[in-house]
Amino acid sequence: MNSDANVIRCEWGRTDPDLQHYHDTEWGVPMQDPRQLWETLMLEGFQAGLSWTIILKRREAFREAFVGFDPHKVAKFGESDIERLLANAGIIRSRAKIEATILGAQRFLEIPDFAAFAWSFVDGQPIRNRTGVVPAKTPLSEAVSAELKRKGFKFVGPVIVYAWMQAVGLVDDHAPDCFRA
Q1: Residues with Cβ < 8 Å from 159, sequence gap 6 or more?
Q2: Short-list 113, 127, 109, CA closest to 172
Q3: If we measure between CA atoms, which residue out of 168, 165, 167 comes closest to residue 32?
Q4: Would the pTM of this model clear 0.85, i.e. be above it?
Q5: Is 27 a residue of the active site?
């Protein structure tokens, strides 16, 4: 992380120490690990209607609650696990989002290589946006969202999917003057 006050970074990465660290070390870094790609997609779903700062502050609690986002374990969660998660004040206690994560684990396991699946939408290379204009969604995120929905995933609308694409480096939306650009 670069904490130098003179460093130029994306505007959103200047507002909070947690966001600054996330911006400087994670956001937009091309992610290849299938499990991490899935974890990030699930966390983006939990973020729906909330701020990413809330998710970042609770990310370790999410990881603990969802057994390290091990899709083989999460896919087997049942009603008692859902009740346990709904009682966990460390995470976002939304039944719909919890159930979507369990379903997401099951769907993830049906895809032979989730990383290859994800990166196929960008021909294996990040799309670099240096316009300084960052959309909430794009025709590509709409297409990825539609394919994820077709495969049975929930909480994967085009806005959530675009945020995920940015987070995992499928799209590089760092501002043109950002030190990470």
Answers
A1: 136, 137, 141
A2: 127
A3: 168
A4: yes
A5: no
Q: Which of 22, 27, 38, 162 is catalytic?
A: 22
Residue tagged active-site, from 27, 39, 44, 162 = 44
Q: Catalytic residue at 162?
A: no
What is the rounded distance in angstroms from the CA atom of residue 44 to the CA atom of residue 51? 10
The C-alpha atoms of residue 144 and residue 33 are separated, in whole angstroms, by 18
Active site residue 22: yes
Is-contact 162 23, C-beta < 8 A?
no
In whole angstroms, give the CA distance from residue 10 to residue 101: 30
Q: How far apart are CA 126 and CA 55, in angstroms?
A: 24
The highest-level CATH class for domain 11-172 is: mainly alpha
pLDDT in tens, 107-132: 999 999 999 999 999 999 999 998 98
Determine which one of 52, 119, 162, 164 is catalytic.
Answer: 52
8 Å CB contact between 179 and 2? yes
Q: Where are the beta strands (DSSP E) in the chain?
A: 127-128, 171-172
Could you state, in order of their start, the residue ranges of all structural domains in the chain? 11-172
